Amino acid sequence: MVTVRAPATSANLGSGFDVFGVALDRPADVVHVERADRTTIEVTGVGSQYIPTDPDRNVVGAVAEALDAPAHIRIDKGVRPSSGLGSSAASSAAAALALNELYDRGLSREELVPVAAEGEAVVSGEAHADNVAPALLGGFTVATDEGVTTVDADIPLVACLPEIAVSTRDARRVVPDTASMEDIVHTVGRAATLSVGMCRRDPALVGAGMDDRIVTPARAELITGYNDVRSSALAAGADGVTVSGAGPSVLAVCGERDRTRVAAAMVEAFDGADVAARAYKTRVGSGAEVFDI
Ligand SMILES: Nc1ncnc2c1ncn2[C@@H]1O[C@H](COP(=O)(O)OP(=O)(O)OP(=O)(O)O)[C@@H](O)[C@H]1O
Ligand SMILES: N[C@@H](CCO)C(=O)O
C-alpha cells in the first residue's frame, strides 16, 4: 500500500486566472492505494457524503485510468469539496503520486501534473492545472501550456471558508468571454507584480498583485458578504484579498503578526452577513508527500 498527503491549494490569486496557484500548509487530503484488478473507491472525512465513489465520477478514477493503474483507493478528505481550496485537486494529486509509486511508473512530479489535471476535467469540464500543479510541486506555481514554473515562496496567508458551496463548474460559467484592453493591461501588470512579490517573499507586493478587474468581480457576486469580508480584512491589516479558486473561500495575504486579526475580521464579517465561516491561518506550503510504501 502507498499513502500520500496532498495539500489544499488556492488558484488564480486574483490576477492569475487559470495560471497562478499556491500550495497551502493546511488542510490536506490523505489517499491510500493498494493494487487491484479494477478501481474501487472509498471516501471518508469532511464532505465525503457529497463525493461519489463511482470511478467515472470521482477524480481519482480518472487518474487511475490515465495511469492504467487499477487500485482500491481510500480517500480521507481534509479539504472540503466545493470550497475553492482545491478539494478535487488534492485528491487528484495524491492519487497521481501514489499510483505512480505503487505501479513504479517512474514519472516526475512535473510529468504527473497533466495526469492529475485529467481528474480536474471530470468535475469542472476542463483539465486546468492551476490547483494540481501546486498540490504536486508545492510553493507558488505558474502553469501554462508550455509547462509549470515554481517559486519556493514563504508567504503568510489566511483562507476563510464560509458555509456555502460554489462549484467550479458553476463559477466558470460566470467568467466573461471578453475584456477591455485597459482591464487586460491592468491585470497583466498586477500579475507581474504578484510574481515579483513571490520571488522576493514580499506580502505587500503579492497583495498589490492580487487586484483583478476581469474574473474576480463576477465571482464575488456568488459569495454572500464578500465585499464586507474583503474590506474588513484590509482594515485589519491584510495586504491583499481575493476569491480563492472558484470560491467561496476568500484568501488574504498579510504579515505574520497580522494573521490572527485578519482571520478574526473575516469570520466576523461573514457572521455579519449571516454566514458561518472558519479561517485557516496558513502559509504557502510544500507539495504532496509520500508517507509509506
Ligand atoms: N475526490 C474528490 N474530492 C473532492 N471532490 C470530488 C472528488 N471527486 C469528485 N468530486 C466532486 O468535485 C466537486 C468539487 O470540486 P470543485 O472543483 O467544484 O470544488 P473544489 O475543488 O473544492 O474547488 P476549487 O477547484 O475551486 O478549489 C464536488 O461536486 C465533488 O462531488
Ligand atoms: N482556475 C480555476 C481554479 C478552480 O479552483 C477556476 O477559477 O475555475
From TrEMBL:
InterPro entries listed in its UniProt record: GHMP_kinase_C_dom, GHMP_kinase_C_sf, GHMP_kinase_N_dom, Homoserine_kinase, Ribosomal_Su5_D2-typ_SF, Ribsml_uS5_D2-typ_fold_subgr
Matches recorded under Pfam families: GHMP_kinases_C, GHMP_kinases_N
Record keywords, A-Z: Amino-acid biosynthesis, ATP-binding, Cytoplasm, Kinase, Nucleotide-binding, Threonine biosynthesis, Transferase
Top-level EC class as recorded in UniProt: transferase
Entry's Gene Ontology BP terms: threonine biosynthetic process
Subcellular locations according to the entry: Cytoplasm
GO cellular component terms listed in the entry, alphabetical order: cytoplasm
Entry-linked Gene3D superfamilies: 3.30.230.10, GHMP kinase, C-terminal domain (3.30.70.890)
Domain GHMP kinase C-terminal: 197-270
Start and end residues of each GHMP kinase N-terminal domain: 61-139
Catalytic activity: L-homoserine + ATP = O-phospho-L-homoserine + ADP + H(+)
Involved pathway(s): Amino-acid biosynthesis; L-threonine biosynthesis; L-threonine from L-aspartate: step 4/5
Record carries keyword Cytoplasm: yes
An example molecular function term from Gene Ontology annotations: ATP binding
EC number: 2.7.1.39
Record's keyword annotation contains Kinase: yes
Binding site for ATP: 80-90
Family: Belongs to the GHMP kinase family. Homoserine kinase subfamily.
Function: Catalyzes the ATP-dependent phosphorylation of L-homoserine to L-homoserine phosphate.
HAMAP family (alphabetical): Homoser_kinase (MF_00384)
Protein name: Homoserine kinase
Species whose genome carries this gene: Haloferax litoreum
